[in-house]
């Protein structure tokens, strides 16, 4: 018996079956028949708690539908999954109908949840034992995993999935609460995208390092799927960080060996990783950064189903944990139209930022936000030695200074109109975007007035 878990530790082939078929089918059947059952199931269990892959995928679809406020009856679910290969192989709509015949009475729901959860815990304990025996897990990591399992059991047994109205109205109304002022909202999901080489990773690494070395208790988990060790060293040294600075709260995983995060296996491994960090820094608020998001997935980037799978397996669990998370992504060919790939990339986060270079820094523009208190624009100027970003009220589009110098060289009058300046540039073969040209004209005037 493992302390605090009340489950017999599995031992070899005599440890019993790895799953409870009746409970898994019964739960899914109830979720398909009763919306209130679907809400409770997805609040108490994760897809990887189920043994069969098709059961995992169906629960992930139910979780997505519950989160989106969509119906979970067999007809709607079947229509939504009709193009999925795994669904057809499982038996399609006929399989869904068969699951409903195993549903039984709603009174069986709690028993089914308990059975599925306990079998899932046994499988995890067995896996831990095998990894310890193979030397793939340290004792400290095992202790952290056991602590996480114990806490999860306690939460599942002691918490109701419903709002407690006796305390609901006594809580303060939610207002602005920032992890990094005006950029990262505490406990929320964020997407930040930019064109190639615009500086999104550089800016966010500076931000993360500032948080990890600041006075506030914050622990950062950065999953880097792109850079090399040399790149990271060079950037941190440029920012003034070196061996004399304590970066222990910046838990940086370079090219991590994780399954894709739009799968149950990837979500489970990520949760284990976060458990270990939180066990190491128990009183710290966690920030997770995914750089770059598309490289952490296996599904097609242009498919909304990929984002739905990420949310069902990983995003929902990050939200339930209450941590802050940020995923970095590329802009599409037309950066004004949003992130590369499916438009569904903005559906599962609370804030979407578009980052653009300015003449001497970066500007963040809010594409969308669930909270009214997120600013429309945030601008930073970049300084060197050490490399840092400083918040400013005014910014200049990239190319402003260079365009102003061209206007000076062509002898364009200081008070010239934008149309006249544009014509002069065109005749000299020096075409510029109107936004940059207008900024360059203002730059020249303010320079003369001593304000630039």
Offer a concise description of the structure.
The chain is an alpha/beta fold.
Secondary structure elements and pairings:
Elements: H1 21-33, H2 35-44, H3 53-68, H4 74-80, H5 85-90, H6 92-101, H7 109-134, H8 139-158, H9 165-168, E1 178-180, E2 184-185, E3 189-194, H10 200-212, E4 218-224, H11 229-238, E5 250-254, H12 264-280, E6 285-291, H13 304-321, E7 324-330, E8 351-357, E9 361-369, E10 377-383, E11 388-392, H14 400-410, H15 418-427, H16 434-448
Parallel strand pairs: 3-7, 3-8, 4-5, 4-6, 6-7
Antiparallel strand pairs: 1-2, 8-9, 9-10, 10-11
Helix pairs in contact: 1-2, 1-3, 1-6, 1-7, 2-3, 3-13, 4-6, 7-8, 8-12, 12-13, 14-16
What does this structure look like?
- With 452 residues, the chain is an alpha/beta fold.
- It folds into 3 domains: 12-159, DNAb Helicase, Chain A (Orthogonal Bundle), CATH 1.10.860.10; 178-392, P-loop containing nucleotide triphosphate hydrolases (Rossmann fold, 3-Layer(aba) Sandwich), CATH 3.40.50; 400-448.
- It contains 16 helices and 11 strands.
- It has helices at 21-33, 35-44, 53-68, 74-80, 85-90, 92-101, 109-134, 139-158, 165-168, 200-212, 229-238, 264-280, 304-321, 400-410, 418-427, 434-448, and strands at 178-180, 184-185, 189-194, 218-224, 250-254, 285-291, 324-330, 351-357, 361-369, 377-383, 388-392.
- It has a 9-stranded mixed β-sheet with strand order 5-4-6-7-3-8-9-10-11, with helices on both faces. Strands 1-2 form a two-stranded antiparallel sheet.
- A hairpin with a 3-residue loop joins strand 8 (351-357) and strand 9.
- Helix 1 (21-33) packs across helix 6 (92-101), helix 7 (109-134) runs antiparallel to helix 8 (139-158) and helix 14 (400-410) crosses helix 16 (434-448).
- The longest helix has 26 residues, at 109-134.
- The radius of gyration is 26 Å and the shape is elongated.
């Amino acid at each position: 018996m493992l302390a605090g878990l009340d489950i017999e530790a599995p031992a070899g082939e005599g440890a019993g079956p790895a799953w409870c078929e009746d409970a898994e089918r019964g739960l899914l059947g109830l979720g398909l028949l009763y919306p209130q059952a679907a809400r409770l199931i997805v609040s108490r269990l994760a897809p990887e708690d189920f043994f069969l892959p098709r059961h995992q995928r169906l629960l992930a679809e139910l979780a997505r539908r519950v989160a989106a406020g969509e119906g979970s009856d067999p007809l709607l679910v079947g229509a939504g999954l009709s193009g999925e290969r795994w669904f057809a192989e499982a038996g399609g709509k006929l399989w869904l109908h068969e699951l409903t015949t195993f549903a039984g009475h709603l009174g069986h729901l709690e028993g089914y949840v308990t059975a599925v959860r306990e079998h899932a815990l046994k499988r995890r304990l067995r896996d831990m034992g095998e990894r310890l025996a193979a030397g793939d897990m340290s004792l400290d990591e095992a202790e952290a995993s056991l602590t996480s399992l114990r806490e999860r059991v306690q939460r599942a047994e002691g918490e109701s999935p419903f709002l407690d109205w006796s305390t609901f109205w006594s809580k303060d109304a939610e207002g602005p609460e920032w992890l990094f002022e005006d950029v990262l909202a505490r406990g929320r999901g964020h997407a930040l995208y930019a064109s190639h080489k615009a500086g999104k990773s550089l800016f966010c690494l500076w931000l993360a390092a500032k948080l990890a070395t600041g006075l506030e208790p914050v622990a950062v988990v950065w999953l880097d799927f792109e850079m090399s060790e040399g790149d990271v060293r060079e950037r941190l040294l440029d920012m003034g960080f070196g061996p004399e600075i304590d970066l222990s709260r910046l838990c940086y995983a370079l090219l991590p060996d994780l399954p894709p995060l739009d799968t149950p296996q990837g979500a489970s491994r990520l949760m284990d990783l976060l458990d270990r960090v939180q066990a190491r820094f128990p009183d710290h608020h966690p920030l997770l950064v995914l750089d770059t998001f598309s490289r952490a997935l296996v599904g097609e980037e242009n498919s909304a189903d990929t984002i739905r799978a990420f949310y069902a397996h990983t995003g929902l669990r990050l939200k339930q944990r209450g941590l802050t998370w940020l995923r970095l992504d590329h802009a599409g060919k037309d950066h004004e139209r949003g992130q590369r790939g499916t438009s569904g990339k903005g559906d599962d986060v609370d804030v979407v930022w578009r980052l653009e270079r300015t003449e001497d820094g970066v500007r963040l523009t809010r594409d969308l936000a669930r909270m009214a208190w997120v600013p429309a624009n945030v601008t930073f100027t970049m300084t060197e030695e050490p490399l840092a970003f400083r918040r400013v009220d005014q910014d200049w589009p990239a190319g402003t200074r260079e365009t102003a110098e061209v206007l000076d060289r062509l002898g364009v009058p200081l008070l010239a109109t934008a149309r006249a300046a544009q014509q002069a540039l065109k005749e000299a073969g020096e075409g510029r975007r109107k936004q940059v040209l207008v900024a360059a004209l203002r730059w020249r005037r303010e320079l003369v007035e001593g304000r630039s």
